[in-house]
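Researcher: Please predict.
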Amino acid sequence: MDKEKKKTSWGKLWTKKYPWIKKAKPVAPPLSSQSEAGTSSQSDAVTSSQSEAEVSNLSASAMQINEPTDAMETENYDENTDFTEMHETTSETTETHEEDSIPMDDSTIDTTEVISEFDLGLFMNKPLSSEQRSLLLKRCWVPPQDYDFAVDSDDSKRNFLHNWLQVYKPWLVYSKKEKGALCLHCVLFHKTTVQGFLGAFVVKSFTKYKDMHELSRNHARSKWHQTSMKAAIEFTTAKPVDLQMVTGHQKLIEENKKIIRSIISNIIFCGTTDSPLRGKDEDSRIFMDLIRLRIEAGDESLKKHFEEGPKNAKYTSPEIQNEIIALCGEVVKDMIIADAKKASAYSILADETADISGKEQLSLGIRFYDKSQAKLREEFMGFSELNAMDAPTIADEIDHAVVSCELEPNKCVGQGHTLNLVVNDLNTVPEVRNTIGTIKDIIRFFRESVLRRKCAPNIPALCETRWSQKHKSIAVFKENFVEIVNALLTLSTEGNAKTRSAAFQLHSAATKPVFIICTSIIAKYSDILEPVVNGLQSKSLDLLKCKDHLDRIATVISSHRTAVDALIDEILDEAKEIAKSIDIELDMPRLTQRQQHRSNQPASNPNDYWKISLLIPYLDSLISSLANRFASSNLPAFSLLTLHPYIMLKKSIGDLKEDIKPFSEFYELDLSAEIELWYNTWKDKQLSGVAMENLEVCDVITEADTFFPAVSHALEILLALPCTTCTVERSFSTLRRVKTWLRSTMGENRLNGLCMLSVHRKMVKERKTEIVDEVLRKFAENLRKLVL
């Protein structure tokens, strides 16, 4: 037993002093010689017996080397003994099967020592056939458990560990030829062109063993390794190698696109719900909360991207957010413009407002008839910052919008007007304009402070963009006028200095006779105009109905103008009741010999004075404004209404041909060949007068779509002509929700993108998949760190 231990210790000492001496194994004959079986002869027998003798001699020599003699045990040996011949004889060989041998050139075999023909290092950086790849995937050489990696290592402190092959299985292999670690799949299937550069594990062996785990994990996460792994899996399905490489690359692209789609969907959700993407810090951002919510819901691709992906390619930075938001707005706008280009005519809607940062924003919209949906559409197209408020600047912005959208200018048939300003804000009577301004200031004064609100009834804000809300605010103000004036009087003597000063000024303006009377006049006509303006807010309102509404307005106002004496008595009686409640006398201003700022009215009593100075000018201003803006004699567009069956059948065919000449010449339409047939078509239907009157232009145009192209074109122009600018005015409310005090530094591109998503949220939800795909396509046009 002691002798066996001594032999073992001597064996270790021997191999340590002479590391090139190893235990020899019987050398198997080459695979090629086994396959070349000849006929039985005497020379073959002699050769076979000689080979067996050589093997026996080699075995004996190996026993002599690995089991030292007694002289070796007593260290009585010659250290200069030449063991070169012995080492060559005892080199290792690998047993292989003839059917699994890999065809190789003689140049690939290292002649200094026998290396397995399945050693991966023999095939690194060389073109491989499908047969070679298949055999290496199945029988790649694996070092035995007792393999001495220290022999291959240049660093005496760091050696390859055999258990690493199990930790990083199946891709990690060891090469005896390259004396280091390699990636099986990357060597066999790596692409020649990748984003980045290929290094250890792929084009050279890995020997930096102190960083083995960190660099192995990094390699496993690299895009070329993932592509090679997928290519190896596809290879086993017997697909062509080129197709496998392409398929693996496409799968990586699809995986990356899935990640970006999730990010785009989160941004669209924030935009359609008016939610801020950013917060006070990184963790408080709603956008990141949505990302975490998707991961918790089971989005494995997104989870892997944020846990294992590169930190400089997360695609959640503010710059990427702005880019995606701008692309979302651009895609939605392009979809609207694409539908508008199919129409025969369109109109541009424009209106202006100031945002929270004081910048003047021009809101642009478009109105057209969509044949595919058989409905009239008014769509918001975005904001444009104005550098000046003059007419040339606004006209240039509208022209730029038409050119940038690649719309045909000759199809533009109109521009939107706003009736709201005609009624009150831009009325020619200065007292009316000043009264509206004072009412705004009083409402704002009470709504600015919670304590002030307790002193007066709750009055809705006088909204500039909502007509019905504006009339409601004026009506509520008049009903609570006495209580509001008393509250101003109380606050003018109480509270802080700022409150007292503002309340005193507003109380002085509100208690003047001219303010009380103007408030009564405006409130009266607000009640009359409210149903009309509510109807004008409809997107589907056509010019025929608009004309009917305007005719009703003109009729009502004209009747009041005729009976002005009775009207002024009614208004003054109501004003006197209000004045009496606050101890004010409605006296007429004093008359002087020489007036510089106002004229002396020829009136002998208050009724005549207020009738001449206020009521009559106000009514005349309304009638004149409506006549100038919407008179049918001044607009060829109104003559298009003659094509409507309700109006057309009231005329003879001769009169109809004369009536269509103005708009036919103006819009360059040739209706001579169709007008008589169009007339007889509706005459033969024999519809009742009520049915004819209730026909909308959208219903009429469906009859003309196939057989009456010129008439259909004319009716599309009629539908495209705008009655109001309600659509672009509604965008002002969106502007105030999106660009708040906390988001006042928002850029123009981000603002437009978020407003487009907010205003068109219904369309975005219906066509979300299409929008996300198009945004992703545009986003992938630029070079990205993720392969898209």
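Model: Residues 1-100, 104-112 have pLDDT under 50 and may be disordered.
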